[in-house]
Amino acid sequence: MAHHIYMTHAYLIPDSDMLSALIRAARRGVDVRIIIPAESNHIVADWLARGFYSSFLRAGVRLLLYQGAMVHAKTATIDGQWSTIGTANIDRLSLLGNYEINVEVFNADVAKQMEDLFAVDSSNTIELSLPDWQRRHAMVKFSETVLTPLRPLL
């Protein structure tokens, strides 16, 4: 069973399989942390991604908002053994149509370096809590709901 999953993604718009896998992992006690930009360079992607935050936070996934710059990395590492680095975001376009690519590495030394970089990047984040997220303005919540049908397009 996995112990931890650390991910960094510029745009977090998971398909139903990825969403379900990360939520199931967190619910069974896996330490799932995802660094995402507090503000990205793509406002529509931000609004679509935010529609998933409640589900992630309720399940125990830790969302770490990168401060002061656009984090554009697309990385993940699991249990100090497996890592991926590349150009693909976790969204339908990246995975199916944008001809993006990631490399998978099964190597403890690489995974250790990835975890060290994740720790450095984490030091420039603010963790989003479920209570803070639930306190956002009603108009913001409404806007996220209105954009929900666009998720499958990205």
Order of helices and strands: EHEHEEEHEHEHH
Low-pLDDT ranges: none
Helix coverage percent? 40-55%
Give the neighbour order of strands across the main sheet.
6-5-4-1-2-3-7
> How would a crystallographer describe the biggest sheet?
7 strands, mixed
Give average pLDDT, whole number: 86
How many angstroms does the end-to-end distance come to? 31 Å
The percentage of residues in β strands lies in: 15-25%
Contiguous helical run count: 6
Quaternary class: single chain
Précis, in short:
By secondary structure, the chain is of the alpha/beta class. Helices cover 42% and strands 24% of the residues.
What does this molecule look like?
This protein has 154 residues and is of the alpha/beta class. Helices cover 42% and strands 24% of the residues. The chain is built from six helices and seven strands. The protein has helices spanning 16-27, 43-59, 92-97, 108-122, 130-134, 138-147; strands at 4-9, 31-37, 62-66, 74-78, 82-86, 102-106, 125-128. It has a seven-stranded mixed beta sheet with strand order 6-5-4-1-2-3-7, sandwiched between helices. The N and C termini lie far apart (31 Å).
Task: Describe the protein's topology.
Layout: E1 4-9, H1 16-27, E2 31-37, H2 43-59, E3 62-66, E4 74-78, E5 82-86, H3 92-97, E6 102-106, H4 108-122, E7 125-128, H5 130-134, H6 138-147
Parallel strand pairs: 1-2, 2-3
Antiparallel strand pairs: 1-4, 3-7, 4-5, 5-6
Helix pairs in contact: 1-2, 2-6
